[in-house]
Amino acid sequence: MKKPIRNLPSPQVLCALALAIGLVSIAHGADAPAPAGDAPGPYVGIGLGLSKLGPRNEGKDGAHGERPGVAKLYGGYRLTETWGVEAGLVKLGHVHNDTTAMDGSRVHHNGEAHSLYLAGTGRLALGHGFSLTGKAGASFGRVSAKDSGDTNFTLGGNKASPLLGIGAEYKVNRNIALTFDLDGYGKVSDKVKAATATVGARYSF
What we know:
- The structure is a single chain.
- The chain has a single domain (11-204), classed as Beta Barrel (Porin).
- It has one helix at residues 11-29, and strands spanning 41-55, 69-78, 83-100, 106-127, 130-145, 157-171, 176-187, 192-204.
- It has one helix and eight strands.
- The radius of gyration is 19 Å and the shape is elongated.
- The protein is mainly beta.
- Strand 3 and strand 4 form a beta hairpin.
- An eight-stranded antiparallel barrel has the order 1-2-3-4-5-6-7-8.
């Protein structure tokens, strides 16, 4: 079984990278024309931030450790100024949980969560480059987990769940927008659910 990757950057590093992306985007857009309406066409983006991962219905046994970092890469196509479609790959980070085995011993469980999603998107322009955004679709989650001494419990597995997200964006110029998103991925395995908060940038072609 493939071992989870353990060198994921800390949440502080991810947030610093996201801030750097925003500053670079603003610098590039400082001398650009005023933002215009979103024309139909393709776009790509990146989001960095924090995720909330945890097993469901485990009583006092819950996720522990520092809040994991998340990295999101996505692309989409704007069909109109309001509606579009989007797909992305999200590295949700590590999830941990402790359970009590049948013999009374404490067992540590570890896993790494990912999601591949497909969604429809909507956008409501507020003026001056600001917009509210939303998405709804499907998340195809996966948790890669190590075997443990408690054979009656595992974090690992695959799960398809509804995806819902809300957010906001600011257009620096006609190509670049800064983004903030809150996304819920539902259950990414039978025992793990996921939600994220990310900041990032989007480039429209």
